[in-house]
Amino acid sequence: MFPSLALAVETMKLALRGIICLGQNVLPLVLEMNYVFGPIKYTCLHQGKCVQKQEVVCKRLDDNSVVQNNYCDPDSKPPENQRACNTEPCPPEWFIGDWSECSKTCDGGMRSRTVLCIRKIGPSEEETLDNTNCLTHRPIEKEPCNNQSCPPQWVALDWSECTPKCGPGFKHRIVLCKSSDLLKTFPAAQCQEESKPPVRIRCSLGRCPPPRWVTGDWGQCSAQCGLGQQMRTVQCLSYTGQASSECPETLRPPSMQQCESKCDSTPISNTEECKDVNKVAYCPLVLKFKFCSRAYFRQMCCKTCQGH
To answer: CA 122 to CA 288: how far, in whole Å?
Structure first.
């Protein structure tokens, strides 16, 4: 008779697999199971105090494998071994966190980590104490990192003003290949071309003013006495001062105007002294075309121009 139903089932499984024989005239082989003490385990309690436990497990005696407890006789199970250990509170110790990322990728940066003085007060509880409570040397919480020199880098100067002063234009700037401390300038080939900042960008300061008519000063009157004409320059210029043909003709200022010069009004006492020089044949034409206001013709045709 088997000690338990579970043991009987286990024995039948082994028989079917040919491990044991239950044939005629063969005594059944009964598997022996028994309770044994397992490995020692520690369980921490409040204030860091721990308990040492040694559990009882059910094992097969033929191969020393652990099986379920219902294979063993429950009446033969011994009590678990348990005793207190580490009865004194756990001493404070340093908690050291992971290092942070370096503050710089090159040319020397700093990294830091958390360093605390803690004491365990339970399986998952701890308290933070003043650093003086930890007796060992405090680990460093900051250290230098990435001390290798940085490669040359692009440095862009300020943008120039937009040119031209109106309409679409461009801004320009100088971009240099410099050392990380900005003290040395390297050939552009030593910096990565694909990361070079732009040296020119589009800009606009608003629409340009339209071309306009620009006039010069009036010239001298063509007549030294009486009516004449005077001239001036009239140009169509763009805002840059260049000649243009886009000024409206309807707004073009006049380039010529009539003028009058003051004549000498001294009377001629002797009419015999006023005469046409050598009886110039064109003096009647001078009178006809009103050239008597001009000093030259008035002198050469004095008699003809007298009174006119």
So the answer is: 134
CA atoms within 13 A of residue 255's CA, in its CB half-sphere:
8
Residue with tokens 């971009």: 175
| Bridge partners for 212 per DSSP | 237
For residue range 268-292, list pLDDT tens digits in order: 455 557 887 766 567 888 888 888 8
Q: Where do the domains of the chain lie?
A: 5-85, 93-145, 153-204, 209-263, 270-308
pTM greater than 0.85:
no
pLDDT tens column, 48-88: 567 778 888 898 888 888 888 888 988 888 888 777 766 66
Read off the pLDDT band of 228 (50, 70, 90).
confident
Q: Which residues on adjacent β-strands are paired with residue 44?
A: 50
- Correct CATH for 209-263 of 1.20.144, 1.10.150, 2.20.100, 3.30.300: 2.20.100
Q: How many alpha carbons lie under 13 Å from residue 211 in its C-beta half-sphere?
A: 17
Distances (CA, A) of 139 to 48, 113, 114, 116, 135: 23, 10, 10, 9, 12
Indicate the residue type of 306.
Q
SS3 content of the chain, % helix, strand, coil (to 5): 20, 30, 50
